[in-house]
Amino acid sequence: MATIQIKRKTSSGNGPLVGNGTIRAGEPLIDLNGKNLYISKADKTGTTSSPLTASDYIEFYSKENADSAMDTKISVLDLGQASRFNVGNTSGRIPVIDSDGKLSQNIIPQVAITDTFVVSSASAMLGLTSAQVGDVAVRTDLSKTFILKTADPSVEANWQELMTPTDKVTSVNGKTGAVSISLSELGGVSEAVYNTHLNSSKHLTNQQLETLSHVYVTDPKCGSEFSYVNYCESLSELKSTTVAGALSMFVSIDGNYNPPIKKVYIGVNSSKVLTPSSTIDGGTY
């Protein structure tokens, strides 16, 4: 029986026949060292000026070399473990988005982010083409709010009105509409009696009357009602920064107010300060 052996590399080194030699188009060469198969691309005789090179062949990796090359490529690309899995929606697979641009509901349920739209009419509400289930439309024409309960915002039946408890007062003391009510209608005294009582001290106890008799609204004045006063932070600061007897004070009671106002007028004693007509006398010796 005849034995067919393809051209094979038995010498040292790896790769196809290079340098000098002759190959035929489609001729296979097996590298027993490197374990790859090579197919000649065309007839060629290698010479010194035009030697055979690796580019003259189509190289086919052995399984061992192909696995090693792919592992090296994956390592270089730093693809991570995700590159080892196929796509799909079942366990052990990587999910991808569907044609609608979303992940399958088998992977993640629909999540609604509620948007609020303020519109002034039904047609404007039905024209909210970007509205999704859970979005809210505030109708300024009705002072009502609707939520989209079903997909397709152009269908009015898909909008559910949100119920709110009424906050209107239905009646006051049996009256409705624009209500005007008096004290007597509420079962109280008349307005005249109330005002008389308000301005009277009869509702106060003797102790309260005694306390109020000593209460005044104090209104300090400093020369003029429009003058400014330098207020000290402490009594010691006041004593160290002022001249004894330099202030004159007058107190008056204004009974036109209830309680009365005690007005305190404070001025600078002219004898304690220099004036344009003052004389500075150095004295005698």
Write the layout of secondary structure elements.
Elements: E1 7-9, E2 21-23, E3 28-31, E4 37-40, E5 44-46, E6 57-60, H1 63-77, E7 116-119, H2 122-126, E8 136-139, E9 144-148, E10 159-161, H3 191-198, H4 206-212, E11 217-222, H5 235-241, E12 247-254, E13 261-268
Parallel strand pairs: 1-3, 7-8, 11-13
Antiparallel strand pairs: 2-5, 3-4, 4-6, 8-9, 9-10, 12-13
What would you say about this model in short?
With 285 residues, the protein is α/β, with parallel strands linked by helices. Helices cover 15% and strands 21% of the residues.
Q: What is the overall pLDDT average?
A: 80
Residues in helices, as a percent range: 10-25%
Beta-strand fraction estimate: 15-25%
Q: Main sheet: which strands, in order across? A: 1-3-4-6
**pLDDT under 50 segments (min length 5)?**
none
Number of strands: 13
Structural class given helices, strands, pairing? Answer: alpha/beta
Major beta sheet, specifics?
4 strands, mixed
What is the helix/strand order? EEEEEEHEHEEEHHEHEE
So how many helices? 5
- Report the C-alpha radius of gyration, rounded: 53 Å
Give the terminus-to-terminus CA distance: 160 Å
